[in-house]
Write a structure and sequence with these properties.
Elements: H1 3-6, H2 23-31, H3 40-53, H4 58-62, H5 65-71, H6 77-80, H7 85-92, H8 101-121, H9 124-129, E1 137-138, H10 152-163, H11 171-180, E2 184-185, H12 192-200
Parallel strand pairs: 1-2
Length: 204
């Protein structure tokens, strides 16, 4: 047997919350979760998806991600901001998304307010990264029970967004949003992705 044939490839160690039996979930964890986002288009996508998650599991939304992309104009914030009542009724009949009128209306409302923040700060990215002083917060968790659902930063972000009129954007949703967009690196201490992100996205 050659050296190559006898080499044992050790499985990657990943976060304790991840169900590794779901290939799409593993892909999301490995390629996106916790990777710093600076693009407003991606921030808007996650805003729609995370607000749709309220009261549901993230995987429930992840499975419908393509459906949301198709339903919400490829997450074009300017197009979504122009949606009217007729579009809301159309979306209420779309089985590819969560057909919750409140969440659909929130997506449209939040799109309009998202644009206002862009105009005020130059970009939504500049606005939201200020809540972590423009640097990813790196936490040290090992067990599932270690993970918080909110933080002082998510509390402050949620409060300001609510004051601006955003809907479905409580502190728990904001914390999940910050985790997804890499404002917080919550990959567990034994997860291979934690160190990779720290090394790849060294921030001043």
């Amino acid at each position: 047997m050659s050296t190559e044939e006898s080499t044992i490839i050790e499985p990657k160690s990943r976060c304790p919350w991840l169900d590794e039996s779901k290939a799409d979930y593993v892909k999301y964890h490995d390629l996106e979760w916790g990777v710093p986002v600076y693009d407003d288009h991606k921030f808007f996508e996650f805003l729609i998806l995370e607000s749709a998650q309220a009261g549901l599991s993230w995987y429930t939304i992840l499975k419908r991600r393509q459906g949301y992309q198709d339903a919400f104009s490829n997450f074009d914030v300017n197009k979504v901001a122009e949606y009217d009542e007729g579009k809301v009724e159309e979306l209420m009949l779309n089985p590819a998304i969560i057909r919750n009128r409140g969440k659909i209306n929130a997506a449209i409302n939040n799109a309009r307010l998202f644009i206002k923040i862009q105009n005020e700060y130059g970009s939504f990215s500049d606005y939201i990264w200020s809540y972590v002083k423009n640097k990813t917060i790196v936490n040290e968790y090992t067990n599932l029970s270690d993970y918080p659902t909110t933080s002082p930063e998510s509390d402050a972000l949620s409060k300001d967004l609510k004051n601006r009129g955003f809907k479905f954007i409580g502190s728990t949703i904001c914390y999940a949003y910050m985790q997804a967009c890499g404002m917080v690196n919550d990959h567990s201490l034994n997860c291979y992705k934690r160190k990779q992100i720290i090394e790849e996205y060294q921030q001043d």
